Amino acid sequence: MNLVYPWRHARSARFAVIGDPVSHSLSPKMQNAALRELAEPGEYIAVQVPESEVGPALDHLADLGFEGINVTVPNKAAACRWCRTVSEFAATADAVNTIALGSRAGINTDGPGFLETIAAYPGRRATVLGAGGSARAVVLSLAAAGYEVRLWNRTESRATELAALVPGLTVLNKPSVANADIVINATSASLGGDGLNLDWSEAEPHALAYDLMYSAEPTVFLASAGDRPKLDGREMLVAQGALAMEFWLGRPVPREPMRRAVGI
Ligand code: NAP
Predict the structure, then answer these.
(1) Nearest CA owner, ligand 1 atom 23
(2) 10 Å Cβ neighbour count for 146?
(3) How do beta strands 105-107 and 85-86 pair?
(4) C-alpha–C-alpha distance, residues 76 and 53, integer Å
(5) Nearest to 110 by CA among 217, 233, 248
(6) What average pLDDT does the structure give for the chain?
(7) In this structure, is the dihedral angle defined by the CA atoms of residues 223, 226, 113 and 27, taken in order, positive or negative?
(8) CATH topology of domain 4-108
(9) What confidence score (pLDDT) does residue 19 get?
């Protein structure tokens, strides 16, 4: 658990993650490991910011001299509105997860970070389960990278809304792992121990099972995938965090110390 500062009582530091709640975030441990490895001065802390107070909180943190802010649930859309410039991907996703406070420039490293973690795996067919905030970043980045994307969501209308942004995307009417090189669980079903009743006997033997939930223990989704290759959400967490640090520092950031800090 992090020591969390309500934003009005935040002490000054160089970097922070803002969210609500934010006490369980792994980012301070991971990003401080990166700063130490690079012998960079300063510290990365966790600051609690309710969604309705994102604008004044970011103004206040800028006044305190913070250089870089990561934004987590539920504040990514409000952060997008605070920024003076927003990258094209962040604007399409309506989600900023990384801000350079001095220039008020916002980007989204969730999508590029996700792509970094699957780069070594073969195939261009991806099935995404879920249509919430993380699914949105994943679907948009997969489509932009040329993947053939299939999408299923429990509430079909949300899948259809997301599909409207992505030409050629197929909406599935039931969860399926067939005909995919990568199957991504972007639902929060694993939080409740739900495996989505997938029939993995239909899946390709090489299919990568990727659960976006952080978990040192295999989730029901990952356990049900049998011997297939597997990744959990800590991989995406590390990659998006490293890309954020590179944006702020303007220098390469090694992933290994960050991976160790989150237990991979
Ligand atoms: P979100 O915006 O609240 O979306 C939740 C999604 O899960 C919706 O598609 C929802 O479907 C679906 N869902 C919830 N319970 C379900 C169930 N029992 N069965 C089937 N579908 C269910 O959440 P999010 O922020 O995208 O987070 C989703 C997952 O990604 C979580 O496990 C979270 O921990 C993880 N995550 C990881 C990272 C990372 O960096 N690795 C970053 C963010 C989130 P409906 O539309 O039908 O409600």
Answers:
(1) 132
(2) 8
(3) parallel
(4) 12
(5) 233
(6) 96
(7) positive
(8) Rossmann fold (3.40.50)
(9) 97
Q: What pLDDT score was predicted for residue 146? A: 97
CB 127 within 8 A of CB 177: yes
Residue ranges, comma separated, of all CATH 3.40.50.10860 domains in the chain are: 4-108
CB-based pocket (< 6 A), ligand 1: 73, 130-135, 153-155, 158, 186-192, 194, 196, 212-214, 233, 236-237, 240
Q: Which atom of ligand 1 is nearest to the CA of 192?
A: 18
Please name which of 122, 149, 83 lies closest in space to residue 207, comparing C-alpha atoms: 122
Task: Reply yes or no on whether the pLDDT at 21 is more than 80.
Answer: yes
Region of residue 96 (left: phi > 0; alpha: psi -120 to 50; beta: else):
beta
Of the pLDDT bands very low, low, confident and very high (cuts 50, 70, 90), residue 191 is confident
CA distance readout (Å), 215 to 34, 85, 103, 112, 262: 21, 34, 35, 21, 10
Could you give the 3-state DSSP secondary structure of residue 100? strand
The residue annotated as part of the active site, out of 29, 76, 174, 230, is: 76
Q: Within 13 A of 115's CA, how many CA atoms are on the CB side?
A: 16
Token pair recorded at residue 47: 């600051």
In residues, how long is the chain? 264
Q: What whole-number distance in Å separates Cα of residue 170 and Cα of residue 259?
A: 34
Look at residue 192 and give its three-state secondary structure: helix
Residue nearest (by alpha carbon) to ligand 1 atom 31? 188
Among residues 165, 160, 167, the alpha carbon closest in space to that of 146 is found at 167
Select 112-233's CATH number: 3.40.50.720, 3.90.1150.10, 3.40.1080.10, 3.40.50.970: 3.40.50.720
Q: What share of the chain has pLDDT > 70, as a percent?
A: 100
